[in-house]
Design goal:
19% of the residues lie in helices and 36% in strands. By secondary structure, it is an alpha+beta fold. The protein has a 5-stranded mixed beta barrel with strand order 1-2-3-5-4. The protein is globular, with a radius of gyration of 18 Å.
Length: 126
C-alpha cells in the first residue's frame, strides 16, 4: 500500500510539466501583420509545424521568414493536409511578429492563391 501511494505521488508530480504549454504572448506581439509570400519549405513535425517563406518588398529584395504554426494534429483538425502548402505556392499569411527575432512569426491563418483560408487554430475566425 505504501509503495502504491509513493508511486502515485511520483506519477502525479511529473504530470503538470508533461501537459503544460507555453503562451505565444511571451514570444510574439499581439498586432497582426500581413505577409504576401512564396512557400519555400514546410516542416510538418511536432510540436509545431514550421513554414519557411520568401517575402519580396517593393524594391524586389527578398527576406526569408521562419513562421511557427500549430501542431500537426491541430492543423489536421482545421482542414489542413500535409500537402496544403507546397514549395512555390503564393500565399497571404496573417501572423504576429516575434518580439526579439527579426523575420520570425507565429501564423494565425494562411490564404491560398485560390482564395481558400486555412486557420491555424480555433481562435482564428474564418
Amino acid at each position: 500500500m505504501r509503495f502504491a501511494a509513493l508511486f502515485a505521488a511520483l506519477l502525479f508530480s511529473a504530470a503538470p510539466p508533461l501537459f503544460a504549454h507555453h503562451s505565444a504572448a511571451a514570444e510574439y506581439v499581439a498586432e497582426i501583420t500581413i505577409l504576401k509570400a512564396t512557400v519555400v519549405r514546410v516542416d510538418w513535425m511536432n510540436p509545431h509545424v514550421w513554414f519557411f517563406l520568401d517575402v519580396s518588398n517593393a524594391n524586389g529584395t527578398v527576406t526569408h521568414w521562419e513562421c511557427e504554426g500549430s501542431s500537426p494534429n491541430g492543423l489536421l483538425s482545421n482542414g489542413w493536409r500535409k500537402d496544403s502548402l507546397k514549395p512555390g505556392d503564393r500565399v497571404t499569411v496573417e501572423c504576429s511578429k516575434a518580439k526579439d527575432r527579426p523575420d520570425v512569426c507565429k501564423i494565425r491563418a494562411v490564404t491560398l492563391a485560390d482564395g481558400r483560408r486555412l486557420a491555424m487554430g480555433s481562435t482564428a475566425p474564418n
